[in-house]
Amino acid sequence: MVSDKEIQASNALINDVTAPRVAVFVGGTSGIGKLTVKALVATGASVRIYLVGRKSSEERTHAFIHELHALNPKAEVIWTQGEVSLLAETKRVCETIKSKESRVDLLFLTTGYAPFGARRETAEGIEVTQSLEYYTRILFILHLLPLLGEAEAPKVVSVLGGGMEWSTIDLDDLDLKKPGNFTVLNAQPLAVTMTTTTLEKLANNNPNVTFIHSLPGWVNTGNVNRGLDSDSKIMAWFVWLVLEPLIRLFAIGDEVSGQRHLFECTSAAFGGRGVPWHGKPGINSLGKPANGLFLVNSKCDCTLNAKVIAVLREKAQGKIWDHTQEVLRPYL
Ligand SMILES: NC(=O)c1ccc[n+]([C@@H]2O[C@H](COP(=O)([O-])OP(=O)(O)OC[C@H]3O[C@@H](n4cnc5c(N)ncnc54)[C@H](OP(=O)(O)O)[C@@H]3O)[C@@H](O)[C@H]2O)c1
């Protein structure tokens, strides 16, 4: 475990030289993304942040940006509106960023929630949570990789469930469209598993970029309520009676979560570049103390889930990659 003291010491070294100069936060309008934006801005460093979010969050996000500017006048936070559950919108937002920037140092992705209710699709025919947690996140990465390639210590952090991959996902139904296949117990592990296999492939193809798939632990953001609908009364009771009390009891504090994710975004512990790290180097998903994909848990430890990932690498990675390419191709 990386102690909170070590994390604080590392984060205290974030300055105009070590901070990501240009960062893109998708999901920074609430929860862990918002906490991490705040932690980054509070370092006092000179940063430019593209805060990407949907129209319905615009008003309250303007108030948040006002607060951020008061906290650190050197931080430039740019509201960037986009319906990020949609691939076409994701492409449009990326084109905007690409037209303004020649490099991106950090891409931080947190959109999504566990779908406790019935299947709901976006206008593009993709189940909403799979789109938020996987497809649009990967599309953001693919579009911004050339700009990440121009940074000195580029990082992509996707917050979902690194280390919790399953080898038993149904490779013949990656969209969970078969009757009865769409359940929260299938959807979440699928998004987690697809994220890790695809990020590992991208890490192999882009050795200068550091990829992190973060498992955030429980953070009391209200995320657990997002996936309930009016038809899922039993689930609503389960969330209210069981999950919420458990989360309240065991959740990591907001400030701690923000600091831990800021550490993941900036420390050389993962991949060797960034704020100098003198502890044990992070071990990547291939089991090596080198750059690549890191599966990082809520205590900032690297996990391997090695047996499962070895099976996925052999049997699932190619199929998931081909399927992803097929879905994303029209928007590349
Ligand atoms: N919190 C936890 O304990 C926990 C534990 C394990 C995994 N996770 C996963 O980690 C990720 C981040 O969690 P979090 O707690 O930070 O989540 P959160 O506070 O609920 O924030 C989720 C983000 O997703 C956006 N979003 C949700 N539905 C959307 C939609 N239909 N269209 C566009 N944007 C949408 C939200 O935008 P708005 O601000 O506009 O609503 C927000 O920016 C999530 O994928 C979550 O499932 C969380």
TrEMBL record:
Highest taxon of source: Eukaryota
Coiled-coil features, chain-numbered ranges: none
Keywords, in A-Z order: Oxidoreductase
InterPro entries: NAD(P)-bd_dom_sf (IPR036291), SDR_fam (IPR002347), Sec_Metab_Biosynth_Oxidored (IPR052228)
UniProt entry tagged with the keyword Transmembrane helix: no
Recorded GO MF terms: oxidoreductase activity
Gene3D superfamilies per record: NAD(P)-binding Rossmann-like Domain
SUPFAM superfamilies recorded: NAD(P)-binding Rossmann-fold domains (SSF51735)
Pfam families (alphabetical): adh_short
Protein name per Swiss-Prot or TrEMBL: NAD(P)-binding protein
